[in-house]
Amino acid sequence: MESTIPRNEIPAIIDVSFEDLMRDPYPIYKRAQALGPVVRIEAANLLLVTRFEDIVAIERDPATFSSDNPESNVVKLFGPNLMRKDGEAHQRERKAIEPTVRPGTATRCWGPALEGIVDEVISAFERDGEADLFDALAAPISGRALAAIVGFEDVSWQTIAAWSQGMMDGAGNYSGDPKLTARALEVSREIEEAVDRNCPRLLDAPDESLLSSMLQSGLSTKEIYGNTKVAVGGGYNEPRDAILSLIYGLLLNPDQKEKVLANPALWQPAFEEAVRWISPIGMYPRLLTRDVDLGGHILPKGTQIGLSVAAANHEEPRFEAPQEYNAFRSKTPHLAFGSGPHFCAGTWVARIMVTKVVAPQVFARLANLRLKNPDLVTVRGWVFRGPTSLPVVWDV
Ligand code: HEM
To answer: Which of 48, 136, 331, 340 could make an S-S bridge to 131, C-beta 3.0–4.6 Å?
Structure first.
């Protein structure tokens, strides 16, 4: 925390532990939404904004609620990057990666590239009749897809997964554990080395990868390093978790599953509902550039707040029975991809990956797919949340 918060004036939730948040943050968010527009969550040492309209309004005012925080762990450990910049500096780098992530590229290039990856991954376990889809399916697909999108020809999905974990641990290392800092710096160095190895090839033969787009647009080596790390940290676990949540939601609701399987156009709403239901990124930070009145509480300049999009995506009555997966709920926008200038750059890549390739192939290839035992499924996390185990069986 940057500044002294007038703690007595802001409602606080002090009777939940960090473990409570990790296990199931939604009842805590519901309490926070009832308490006011900004609530101190003691276990996370954070001021949280949880209401839908408040988050949308905040994201419309980046001059006041800045993404630029040089003191954040992300910037200190991994260097400056587009996610922690505002205004023109942000726009310039965002434009540089646009050719890789725009819907046309996702459809023409990444969808077909993923077909082969998904085929190989499913073929490896298809005859087993049972698997945990976290390890067998979602982790390798998401890691291999990201390596291709970034332009890393020589990086395995296991390495992508390990880097992503090291980055998340480093970014969330608020207690300053030296082991986590050392690991994060090691990951940072390894990613830079992979960039250095792959760039000469892409300079000779440009393609549609992220590295190639950044090289073509003339970003500096430092900018390329920073943005590649953001892509590794932000482009691996979210699609992995979204794939699993979508499959889990449909397996819990066979009637919905049947309707979606009968009409491919329904994969899109089924996917949007999955990321609303269990938002892969539950919370992200903003820094106040001036004193701000939030619902009668004056927050001083320099205060860091967390925007809980996961809470907003369960706000009632905007979302009826929000804890239930319902691919057929009325079309209400959600905030799982954020909002405003930093709206997820990978939205279309993720949508096309999951709705056009991964989910249809999974249900087409694994006949009569069903949960092995609903009690064995685990879902965990609050800043990042998703199924951590999804044991299933199918007919062989
Ligand atoms: C279901 C999958 C995904 C979800 C739910 C998701 C969610 C988000 C969210 C909430 C943000 C905003 C963070 C902030 O403002 O601090 C974000 C930003 C970002 N995401 Fe994603 N993401 C997903 C997939 C991806 C993929 C596949 C990629 C890369 C290929 C990606 C690349 C990025 C980048 C580069 C940013 C920063 C954008 C900017 O600052 O302008 N994301 N994502």
So the answer is: 136
- Which atom number of ligand 1 is nearest to the Cα of residue 279? 5
Ligand 1 near 230 CB (within 6 A): yes
66, β-bridge pairs: 287
Residues 6+ away with beta carbon under 8 Å from 379: 248, 278, 385, 386, 387, 388
What is the percent of the chain with per-residue pLDDT over 90, rounded to a whole number?
Answer: 89
Q: Would you give the end-to-end CA distance of the chain in angstroms?
A: 54
**Any idea which fold 7-393 has?**
Cytochrome p450 (1.10.630)
Domain regions of the chain by residue span: 7-393
pLDDT digits (tens, 9 = 90+) for 116-161: 999 999 999 999 999 999 999 999 999 999 999 999 999 999 999 9
- 249-266 residue pLDDT tens: 999 999 999 999 999 999
Contact 142, 133 (CB under 8 A): no
Pocket test for ligand 1, best of 245, 344, 353 (most atoms within 8 A of CB): 344
Q: What is the dihedral of CA 85, 89, 92, 96, to 10 degrees?
A: -40
